[in-house]
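Run NodB homology domain-containing protein through structure prediction, thanks.
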Amino acid sequence: MPGRRTRKTRSSSDAGGSSSSAAASPARSRASTIEATSLPRAVAEARDAAPAAKSSAAGTTKSGPTATGSARVTPARSSSSAMTPPPVLTILTVLAIAVAIGLHVFDVADPTGSITHDAHSRRAAVPVRNPTAATDPSAAVLAGLDAGVAAEYLAKLRAAADEHAAGCGVGHGASRTAAFPIEPENARERRQINYAAYYSTREVVPWYTCDTTTCKLPSCQCAQNRPPAGLDPSQVPQFITITFDDAVNAVTYGPTTQLLQGIKNPDGCEAKGTYYVSAQYTDWHAVQTLYAAGHEIADHTFSHVVPSTKAEISNLAASLGALSMIPRNAIQGFRAPYLNITTTAIDTIRALNFGYDSSMTVTPVADKTLWPFTLDAGLPVTCAVGDCTEAIPKPDGTPSMWSAPGVWELPMYSLVTPDGNDYAVMDPPLSGASLTELLERSFDLHYNGSRAPFGLYLHAGWLLGDPTRSDTVRAFIDKVRQRGNVYVVSNAQMLAWLRNPQPITSSTSAGLTCPGLNARGAEVCDGVDNDGNGVADDGVLRTCNFPDAVFGTCAAGCPVRVPSATEPVPPLTDPGTGKCMVPTGTCANGVWDESKCLCMCTGTIDGAGWCRDALGSCSVSKTVAADGKYVRCAYDPAPDATTGSSTTKVGTTGSQATTGSQATTGTNLAGTNLAGTGETLNSASTGGTDSVGKSNKDSITTGNAAARAVETVRGMTVVVFAAVVSVVLAVVVGAL
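Sure, done. The structure for NodB homology domain-containing protein is below.
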């Protein structure tokens, strides 16, 4: 059954025949090379010593009772009684089983840390390995950490990747059918329209109209189930887009880039992907290296929360610009967290000059699969998850007047079952031959039909959860590329073609460009391996260490605080003086407070004045709400939490943007140097203390207080359990 989760050992048949298996061989070879990557010596020794010690202890426990039992003098027994095990062995066996169960429950029986937990299951996971600098720029960031601390941090990154894959991917589309809901204002009047039936008889849903005489490329494209510009399907490239959502770091970088590595399009350009980035656990320098390599970097909001507010969207773009050095005009795309797109969010990205959204789902249907379109004439489909009520007719038949001129929608095409129903939009819960069959069947609907783009929308956790999936996907891509005119591109590359569609002029040309930087010479901090030694930005990269956040950056200095949704670009630390640098734009309309590293904007919390922008300058004038009161700045405390008077200056009562357990009031943060990794800022400090010389280990292990409390309680429980077992064992042995 397609809907059932399967896990199979990879064989030659899993890739769909001998030809697929042969195509997969290079991928398997790469995976084997990656598996052989060694841990740092300290991590490897700690990992290997734990099972050995456990095995030795188990052997001692077994031999002790056996020797004691054999030395004990007992009366001669009959043949029937001789078959009964001695009572002491029975008791000890029961105790051993109890100890084993207890250790398993309390997570002590997993010295390698390779067992992960989620809300639904306990399953074996791929052990986290330290990356190498030659394959992952995040390795340089982790190189300055203590080996144990690095392993702990990698485990956190892996847990976060698994959590996002479980929460955002598997099951999102698997439980839906080809029928999609239309949401009128009155929920009781909700109707069901069969998605597939419409596309088999007409192009779009009934209320959609678009005037093709006025809607013209490059800025406008009506929704249609045929290629743009009147081109025949045989004249257009078959695009494959592969996208990855959420954080980019030492755990997610490797499996995502390796999936695309080595794929060449017919025009000789390397395959590129699209990364929809959110901020938590993101290594900003790793994002920069992806951008420098030609991959697309797009916006997935700062905090990965819904709804997608203007601040969440714009602040992530600000962090990408300041810490990943990505120009704002290069960030064209947006995807809503959990695919919860709304017309309000689309209005927001239009106001922020984004080029496209990619959050809506479309089901491929034979020759009628919808191509990407602009929203000049409204929505030809409804939102599968979010609220798009404003874009559909009202129950009384009044048409919607909503539109978003110039904004493209690059749909997410679902993978389908043999009967044409949606199976999954993201992270299909399959492996091996079942996954191959699903991919090939869905691809055929595109390639043999309207040639609408085919997409794979993934989380790194999906690849990490079953490493054979990477081989399966590579074998699938290698197989379908043999059909001709198949291009694996980023959404940005595809959008450039859509705005100016050109027919294929030869088997090796589709009018696309090869993105990416290739600057050679002395090493500079630009995300590129300038000197050709296999490592980008080695020796010039700044490494920034915070509790629960370690990242690199090519910025002028490390930020004094972890970037947050209310302070996406904190002031930077001057590498020479160790003092905070005044943000770009200075502190006009405010006063620079060096002790807090903040522009203190003029005005009052509840009155007129100014607020800090994403870069920390006081450039945002406070506005008046509908109730006649001035709107508070985003970082100000809620009204019910304010104890001071309304004349208190903004920023002096709880308005300082801090993150986690960090308090930087009155702190002079300075950088220290780590050999081979550039400047390092350790800001795990408290008010009035000097952070110079603090160890990296301190900065990480003092991060999450709640997690430490849970671990403490668990440890105490294990100690009590072991003590009780020891007492019972002593009593039993003494009685014998």
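Residues 1-83, 107-130, 169-203, 641-710 have pLDDT under 50 and may be disordered.
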